[in-house]
Amino acid sequence: MRKPFSTAPVAHIAPIAHIACIVRDPLPPLRADLLALFGTEMPRHGVATALVGQAGGTAQPAWRAGGLYSVGSFSNRYVSILTPLWDSLGLLRAWRASTRRPDCIQVRDKVASGVLARIAAVALRVPFVYWLSFPIVEGYAVRRDELRRQGRMLAWLLHALRAAAARSVLYHLVLPGARHVFVQSDAMADALAACGVARARMTAVPMGVDTALFDRGQLAPSADPRLDGRRVVLYLGRIAQSRRSDFLLDVVQLLRASTPEVLLVIAGDAPSSDEMAWMRREIAQRALDGHVLLTGWLPQRAALGYAVRAEVGLSPIPRGALFDVSSPTKLVEYLALGIPCVANDIPDQAQVLRASGAGLCVPMDAVPFAAAVRRLLADPRLAAGLAARGPGWVRAHRSYAVLGRHVAETYATILAHGAA
């Protein structure tokens, strides 16, 4: 039996286990969960991670948590076809660069590469693990349906074939061969269980925060004069039509009547200039130019400077197969910063607000959403009480230190049984 992991949150220790992890994200990684969990927390527990994937076009610093092996690039027009081959070469490079074979092969959010990784794990006689942070198959299905509504029938046919193939491969070849499946939320675990994945083989790892970065006392409030004298409500995140970001404008339109000094700060960017142009058109059509501030992309600390000027944080997430299984980061970030929040009732958000008591949960409908915001703006005592509960709850349940310990303990159990 392998030596169990140390689960104390200590400084980086000599690696006890080496994981080869194929990721969907561009390398070097930018996502907080990859950076915090695998870049910082796993080394504290003796887990080294070799990241395998495609380059994202930025300079690649040393990945001190193991190794970084990028083969291919996201700028290549054939990336979706070549990815499995590239990932196979990346795995081979990672193995050659190491003095030992990996103790585990893990794939995150890739389907075809999951098949190849499962084969490689069998050949090396090590466990194969899958990490599903996003409902890929359902994402393909949503894109397929969008193309059909747009009348783009050839593109629809290609995406329909892709969605069907991905569903078959993921649920019949990849997940059945995984020793363990990490998922984004309990709701995602329930959805996979309904598709035949044993609940005992799944561990939910929701989104968390680095509490050191989200320490309100260490952040300088924004000096932007446009916030002075305003009742600031905040949306921290991306703008996208698929996320129904125009819903935020419907809420502000209702608030404006009773609270004319209200200002919605949207601290985030859009995935494309077209999406940002769409949002600006929606603002103009509602005559909300004086009540909505789009900051665009900001460095993290600058964005958080705007956040700590806010009285209320907003987290509306559309209901449906794509988002009901998600674990939104923004809600936990509001709580960590001590911002009372209003969120809608997707399962993870409802669970967080029920457990923490740090915000109000309402349906994603503009009238009740605006009413909840208005209630917090009108009742400082209620808002302060909700705000006070957030930081402590996050430290105890959603900090990456806590989540990292949980993940490390799960790896210890997986690897203790070898490749059986």
Write a short abstract of this structure.
By secondary structure, the chain is α/β, with parallel strands linked by helices. It has helices at residues 32-44, 79-97, 112-124, 136-149, 153-174, 186-194, 247-258, 273-285, 300-307, 329-336, 347-356, 366-378, 380-397, 400-416; strands at 17-23, 47-55, 66-73, 104-108, 128-132, 180-183, 202-204, 231-236, 262-267, 292-294, 312-315, 341-344, 359-362. The strands form 2 sheets. The protein has a 7-stranded parallel sheet. It has a 6-stranded parallel sheet with strand order 10-9-8-11-12-13, sandwiched between helices.
Descriptive account of the structure:
The chain has helices at residues 32-44, 79-97, 112-124, 136-149, 153-174, 186-194, 247-258, 273-285, 300-307, 329-336, 347-356, 366-378, 380-397, 400-416, and strands spanning 17-23, 47-55, 66-73, 104-108, 128-132, 180-183, 202-204, 231-236, 262-267, 292-294, 312-315, 341-344, 359-362. It has 420 residues and is of the alpha/beta class. It has 2 domains: 17-208 and 400-416, Glycogen Phosphorylase B (Rossmann fold); 216-397, 3-Layer(aba) Sandwich (Rossmann fold), CATH 3.40.50. α7 (247-258) links the parallel β8 and β9 (262-267). α1 packs across α14. The longest helix is centred in the middle third of the chain and has 22 residues, at 153-174. The protein is globular. The termini are close together. The model is unreliable at 1-10 (pLDDT under 50).
- The count of strands amounts to 13
Look at the structure and give the mean pLDDT. Answer: 93
CATH architecture assignment name of the largest domain: 3-Layer(aba) Sandwich
Which range does the strand content fall in?
Answer: 15-25%
Please write the CATH class name of the largest domain: Alpha Beta
Listing every helix as H and every strand as E from the N terminus to the C terminus, the arrangement reads: EHEEHEHEHHEHEEHEHEHEHEHEHHH
What fraction, in percent, of the residue positions are helical? 40-55%
CATH superfamily of the largest domain: Glycogen Phosphorylase B
Determine the N-to-C terminus distance: 12 Å
For the biggest sheet, the summary is: 7 strands, parallel
Structural class: alpha/beta
Whole-angstrom Rg: 22 Å
What would the CATH topology of the largest domain be? Answer: Rossmann fold
Q: Judging from the principal axes of the Cα atoms, what is the shape?
A: globular
Number of helices: 14
How many structurally independent domains? 2
